[in-house]
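To the structural biology subgroup,

Please find below the input and predicted structure for DinB family protein, which we are adding to the shared reference set this quarter. The sequence is reproduced verbatim from the submission form. If anyone notices a discrepancy with their own records, reply to this email rather than editing the shared folder directly, so we keep one authoritative version.
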Amino acid sequence: METQIMNPIISKDQLLSHWQGHRSLSRRTLEKFPEKELFEFNIGGMRTYADLVKEMLAIAAPSAKGLETGEWEPLEEEKKELKTKEGLLKAWDDATELINKSWANIPEEVFQKQVVAFGQYESSGYQLVAYAIENEVHHRGQGYVYLRALGIEPPFFWERD
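Predicted structure (tokenized):
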């Protein structure tokens, strides 16, 4: 049975803009971290912000690519090759570009269909994108706590440009 989209609350392009607004804010959060603390500082046994960023990278562009092609790579969060702040920022920018390229080719009906992302996460395409956004907001919040603990003012959370 085919799902028909009658009146979506937001358009596909608006959803991408919303997501990229969060990604822009997360990138500015990453920029605020001193290199050493990015890879070493944590509170209460939580992962470092570098490790949280690697998880966000493992989900974002691969989700857009999977929605575009229907092919899913295994979830790969370690990203051992990313050992510097500069490397993380470049990977972030590359992922943003990949999301934009894939997004243009995702048929709107994919957002209503069930997918099994990364061989483990079953949801509609829309729910997968919502998960990617929510996961990023959650981890960015941890980054804000880290920055404040380090005496660094995080970016204003409402400035998502």
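Summary notes: Helices lie at 12-32, 35-40, 49-69, 85-103, 125-149. The mean pLDDT is 91.

Regards,
Lab coordination
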